[in-house]
């Protein structure tokens, strides 16, 4: 297996991923997929929707071996969360 290096810097990667999601995919995938992950190839706009990022990326990479993948959790601001959400640890 050949190790693949990113083709874009972080800013360009984010710009492309968010742009494709907002302009081409959001309305298409949001209705029945809240909470699922969409994996997007930032070069072609090809995408896969699945219950988790590993499944979505595996499905996309099966079609596009060298995909540059941007992930979005449908209906959320972040793909993953860290820590205890809603817990006040300082009481």
Would you summarize the structure shown here?
With about 90 residues, this protein is an alpha+beta fold.
Task: Describe what you observe in this structure.
The structure is a single chain. This protein has 91 residues and is α+β, with helices and mostly antiparallel strands. The chain has one domain. 34% of the residues lie in helices and 15% in strands. The protein contains two helices and three strands. The protein has a three-stranded antiparallel sheet, sandwiched between helices. Strand 1 and strand 2 form a beta hairpin. The C terminus is likely disordered.
What is the strand arrangement across the widest sheet? 2-1-3
The total beta strand count reads 3
Q: Low-confidence spans: pLDDT under 50, at least 5 residues?
A: 87-91
Characterize the main sheet: 3 strands, antiparallel
Q: Report Rg.
A: 15 Å
Helix and strand succession? HEEHE
Shape call: globular
- Percent helix, as a range, is 25-40%
% residues in beta strands: 15-25%
Number of domains: 1
Structural class: alpha+beta
Total helical segments: 2
Please report the distance between the alpha carbons of the first and last residues: 51 Å
State mean pLDDT (0 to 100 scale): 87
List the helices and strands and how they pair.
Layout (H helix, E strand, L loop, with lengths): L9 H20 L7 E5 L5 E4 L2 H11 L5 E5 L18
Antiparallel strand pairs: 1-2, 1-3
């Amino acid at each position: 297996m050949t190790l693949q290096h990113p083709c874009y810097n972080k800013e360009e990667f984010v710009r492309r991923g968010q742009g494709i999601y907002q302009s081409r995919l959001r309305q298409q995938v949001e209705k029945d997929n809240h909470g699922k992950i969409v994996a997007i190839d930032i070069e072609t706009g090809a995408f896969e929707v699945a219950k988790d990022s590993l499944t979505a990326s595996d499905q996309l990479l099966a079609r596009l071996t060298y995909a540059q993948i941007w992930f979005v959790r449908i209906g959320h601001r972040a793909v993953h969360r860290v820590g205890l959400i809603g817990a006040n640890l300082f009481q």
